[in-house]
Write a structure and sequence with these properties.
With 267 residues, the protein is an alpha/beta fold. The chain contains 10 helices and 7 strands. The chain has a 7-stranded mixed β-sheet. 43% of the residues are buried.
């Protein structure tokens, strides 16, 4: 099968929410608790997507202000609806943040860094907009290890189609490992770099609850699923049904791990 034309669209908020956004919302408060920032700080969420992390900042961190930067118009629209005017949202990218130097106290990025082509440039830009002594933090899924919903999918897809393996985030994103994150942040000139694991439960009520989000086309795995013809997609679905740990009541108890990093901007 030709995978050259598999789209990795991240444009429509609702399918993303069903696929991975609902789990991102569980990681965000845990990440913010680990950061432990004082109240009345100015925050920026880089790659704010549908607004999950920005909403958690507003709910848990008593911020002075929250801004978000996101390249996708579709995601910005969803974020605007979710945040209801409580954050300033801008269209922009991790390597071109439309804010002035030292304009915020804390910059965070959730589940985005691995998709940025020039990660060191992104961290330099995050540091630029952060005041001296401020904090830069991020988290990414543990694609190669404990991100069950995707690991089951790609392991089965790779068995059925060897070409699927090169689309697997666990293979493509080496930065999604603790040692690589530590090295990246240190190489960007940030200090006091720390890394930790954040584990959450990702329960599914049924196989359909697990499978349906892969038909939304948002992200590498759903895009791959929708690139298959109907017989191939049915084979993938049926093999997954056999492989997943489905309980007697039809539910599926999976888990997910995110690797979180925090660092300080040097004076």
């Amino acid at each position: 099968m030709d995978h050259e034309h598999v789209s990795e669209s991240w444009e429509r908020g609702d399918p993303y929410e069903q696929y991975v956004g609902r789990w991102s919302r569980r990681v965000a408060p845990r990440f913010l608790s680990w950061l432990g920032m004082p109240a009345r700080r100015k925050w920026l969420d880089v790659g704010c997507g549908t607004g999950a992390l920005a909403a958690a900042i507003l709910e848990h961190c008593a911020p002075a202000a929250v801004a978000g930067v996101e390249p996708s118009e579709g995601f910005l629209g969803t974020a605007e609806a979710h945040l209801a005017g409580r954050a300033m949202l801008y269209q922009g990218s991790a390597t071109a943040i439309p804010l002035g130097d030292a304009s915020v106290d804390v910059v965070v990025s959730g589940l985005v860094l691995n998709f940025v082509p020039d990660q060191r440039a992104a961290l330099a830009e995050m540091a630029r907009v952060t005041g001296s002594g401020g904090t830069v933090g991020a988290y990414v899924w543990d694609y190669a290890g404990k991100m069950d919903l995707m690991r089951y999918f790609w392991d089965v897809a790779g068995e059925l189609d060897a070409g699927a393996r090169r689309l697997d985030e666990g293979m493509r994103f080496p930065v999604c490992r603790p040692d690589a994150l530590l090295s990246l942040f240190e190489s960007a000139g940030l200090s006091e770099v720390e890394v930790t694991a954040i584990d959450i439960a990702t329960p599914f009520a049924s196989f359909e609850d697990y499978w349906q989000p892969f038909l939304g086309g948002q992200g590498p795995a759903p895009a791959y699923a929708m690139s298959l013809d109907a017989p191939a997609r049915t084979r993938l679905r049926d093999r997954l049904r056999q492989r997943l740990p489905i309980q007697g009541d039809g539910s599926i108890a999976l888990a997910a791990r995110a690797w979180a990093t925090r660092a300080t901007v040097r004076p």
